[in-house]
Amino acid sequence: MKEKTRLYCCVVWFIVSLVIAIIFAGCFAAFPYALNFVVRKEIAIVPGSVQTKNWIKPPVPLYATFRFLNVTNKDEVIKEGKKPNLTEIGPFYYKYYRNKFNVTWDEDESRVSYHLDTYYVFDLEKSVGDPHDYNITTLNVPLLGLLLKLESFKRTILERFGQEVLEAYLKRIARDHELLYEIKAHDLLWGYNDTILKLFKEIGLSDTSVFGLETNHSTNDSEGWSTVRTGKYDPKLVGEFTQWNGLREIALWNSNKARQLSGTEGYQFHPNLHRHDVLRAFVTELFRSGDFVYAHDSSVEGITLYHYVVAKHEFANASTNPVNYGYNAFGKPGVLNLTAVFPQNLPVFVSKLHFLDADESYLHGVNGLHPDRSIHDAFLEVEPLTGAVLHGAKRLQFNVLLKRDKHIEQLANIRESTMFPWFMATEESIITKSKADELKADLLTPIKDTRIGLIIAIAVFGALTLIMLVFMIHSCVRYHKYKKGDADVRTPLLSATTLNHSDNSS
């Protein structure tokens, strides 16, 4: 009876331990899915979620800053072919607002479409002064556009007016305008009526006579329809563009990969980031997507962040990175060629500020620039659990490639080739303490509490499994010892054969 009882207990312990082990394995396997469910609920851009509120109106305040590169030796540059001596004028700070409206979800809420309203509010306190009070000597870009596109303009004008009219028109341009001109910072930034563009408009070569770096944003500006994935069914896709400003691809680039619209708008990435993850963002100012790679850990307001920087291959030329063939990257590394997408196909190139990480020839072609990674490099600092960017800086320097041309008066005596810095634009953001506290309460704390709860549950089941296994092993060992001891008791000390042998001997 005791033997059966012990056997029964051993079997029961085994079955219970097996069941708990299965539950433990199930909890361990289901952990990422359970956490993914919670994250998906909080991070997906769906009606009523915390993420949607932050996505429509970002909680992190944005600042746009502009700096201009003033030429102090104008005559030497134009007449003697000297390097331009540059001094930085700025910064001019603007609070930058990006609000989404007309937000519309697909029927299954896998995608959401919207219009974007952007506007700027000048911040005099942070700025070097009022941009109305600063005169800048810089490139006359409307004139340069005419000079560099002379042949295409010539054909168009000849069809309408004939050779004599063309010659008179060009002489008038050459007489009244210089390659480097003086203009107020405010006018260059927000637009002014340019006489060259006015003439172009009169003869049908331009839709406007206003020229400015941010002309379209001088008042409230609404882009066309954009569409992103909500991440409802796959958090890895949250915020990924499928359409931007009415475009499903950037058709002006030279390869299918370059034309492809990919990445987020750079303010939100997928949740549960790992340090080896590569982040991809579509940079609207560049009309292209770019990769960001992990550099080191950082923190803001007690929140641990991953610090990402632009991948080196983005600024490589096509011989080093064949993908950049599609972006016309045929020159020296360190600049991005925007000629194909810039109005009138002006030879505009974008670099990091002060030609940071660019070929040294660009920096040696001018005087006055001093690259410093700590203040001139672009970066994103991302909260890894949610994928939200809590601190970042988009830093772009716009340059124009100038080449000597003996047949054009304004270009006849300049240096053989100069990547001429034009202006610098940055967009920076950092979460405030109050917004950081809200983020912790609304997103980080619930997700972390869920993660901790799941970890505790797994730990408890693991401990129970271990205890059950120990008891099971103990019971089996005791049962084995019992069987062995019982067998010894039942075995006679002298066998019947031995006894018979003894009797016969007697």
Task: Kindly describe this structure.
Helix 1 (2-43) runs antiparallel to helix 12 (433-490) and helix 5 (150-161) packs across helix 6. The radius of gyration is 36 Å and the shape is elongated. By secondary structure, the protein is α+β, with helices and mostly antiparallel strands. The protein has helices at 2-43, 50-56, 74-80, 141-148, 150-161, 163-176, 185-190, 195-202, 256-259, 360-364, 373-376, 433-490, 496-505, and strands at 62-71, 86-105, 111-122, 135-139, 180-184, 192-193, 210-211, 221-222, 226-229, 241-243, 279-283, 288-300, 303-310, 335-337, 348-351, 379-382, 389-403, 417-430. The longest helix is centred in the C-terminal third of the chain and has 58 residues, at 433-490. The strands form three sheets. Strands 1, 2, 3, 8, 9, 10, 11, 12, 13, 14, 15, 16, 17 and 18 form a 14-stranded antiparallel β-sheet that branches. The protein has a two-stranded antiparallel sheet with strand order 4-5.
